[in-house]
Amino acid sequence: MATPANLRSETPLPASKVPKDSFGYVFPAIRGLQAGRHFYVTMFPLRLIPRLFLFDEEELQPALRAQRTLNKARIPEIARYILDNPREYVFSALTASVDANILFDSFDSSGATAHIGQLTIPMSARFVINDGQHRRAAIEQALRENPELGDESIPIVLFVDLGLERCQQMFTDLNRYAIRPSRSLTILYDQRESGARIVKNLVRQSSLWTDLIEMERSNLSARSRKLFTLSALYGATKALLDSIGELTVDDAAKLARTYWGVAAEKIPEWKLVHERKVTAGDVRRDFIHSHGIFLHALGKVGNTLLRDSRDIRSWRRKLDPLSTMDWSRTNSQLWEGRAIIGGRVSKTSNCVALTANVIKTTLGIPLAPEELRIETMHERGMS
Fold it and tell me: Sorted alphabetically, which InterPro entries does this protein's record hold (predicted)?
């Protein structure tokens, strides 16, 4: 934890000397060497983050900034993550540059701990975040609602500021190889969010879905043996259970598994893939019903059915016409402009809604006012 200290006159990094009577913060730190330059790893209490890491470059031209502008829409989501999970949240280190003359006092300048010591930073120092400005803004927002978080810590990787150009290059290098994990993998590893737990429970308890669902990737190759991704089933199941009522994870998974099981009975190609009688790639190539858009649309249709009845026999009767629909991608008269745009399957929200409208109409389910509006606009566009 940082404490104000009177700076001593030991030799700093080879830049210049720090005035003897300057006041500063003292942090425990580890000194390392990277690309021939010293850097420091330390920890700051969260309450210091908004004070030390100011973000005042938003109005500058991009060429004069050392980081991207804040996406304000992301901040409440990250802040809520902290506030809702005070015993579980995890934050990676902030990376920053400091433009002051800093002192590093090793605990043992001659032994193995020569790189472990105290880092003294003048209170007049200016910090620039190279990576983590959204986390910094979210921490500030979370502290307003829960000041007790201020005593907790976050790791900081500090570099000595070498000017705007170097900071800009650091931002580029830090983000050059950053790749977000696939949506499916994120769902697979999420142990907290109820929707993720429901869909994983659903898959685990069904040999059919275990065989048909790609658990890690969010895109399927032509040679994949799977029909759908976990992220597609997650989105479809979320649409299915939307506003159904308070259910435990186990009960929700059981309800969803029952519905998807009944739906699978009406799509014989799914069973053929499960039995290894046809390849998943061939089915996806030839049919609309083996793409995420169909799954999501069928989830929306199922939501209407669940609101009317929880009787599995009622679902079976209602879903019977699915087995006689022409799901061929070559049926362009029906699917072009709905599930297919320019010859390619599209999963925009509008296409999902239009595909759900076709299914509902075929099943004899009245369209809601918003669905009627979307259908009317589509028909006008086709005429």
Answer: DGQHR-contain_dom, DNA_S_mod_DndB
Q: Is 113 helix (H, G, I), strand (E, B) or coil?
A: coil
pTM score of the predicted model: 0.74
One domain for residues 32 and 152: yes
Same domain, 45 and 153: yes
- Please check whether residue 171 is in contact with residue 60, taking contact to mean a CB–CB distance below 8 angstroms: no
Q: Are residues 145 and 285 in the same domain?
A: no
Q: Give the number of C-alpha atoms closer than 13 A to the C-alpha of residue 100, restricted to the C-beta side.
A: 23
Count up the domains in the chain and report the number. 2
Contact 226, 213 (CB under 8 A): yes
Residue 65 has pLDDT above 70, yes or no: no
Residue 156 neighbours by CB under 8 Å, 6+ apart: 41, 42, 43, 44, 93, 94, 95, 96
* CA atoms in the 13 A half-sphere facing the CB of 328: 6
Residues 324 and 236 in one domain: yes
pLDDT of residue 294: 94
Tell me which residue has tokens 């910094």.
Answer: 136
d(CA 241, CA 236) in angstroms, rounded, equals 9
Q: How far is CA 288 from CA 91, 138, 310, 334, 339, in A?
A: 41, 42, 27, 11, 8
Query: What number of helices (H) and strands (E) belong to the chain?
Result: 16, 12
Tell whether 27 and 77 lie within a shared domain: yes
Domain range for 300 is: 183-382
Averaged over 93-110, what is the pLDDT?
84
Instruction: Give the Cα separation of 43 and 154 in Å (integer).
Output: 6
Measure the CA–CA gap between 70 and 75, rounded to whole angstroms.
9
CA pair distance 24, 297, nearest whole angstrom: 60
Q: Record the tokens describing residue 224, joined without a space.
A: 């994949």
d(CA 42, CA 126): 17
Rounded Cα distance between 179 and 177, Å, is: 6
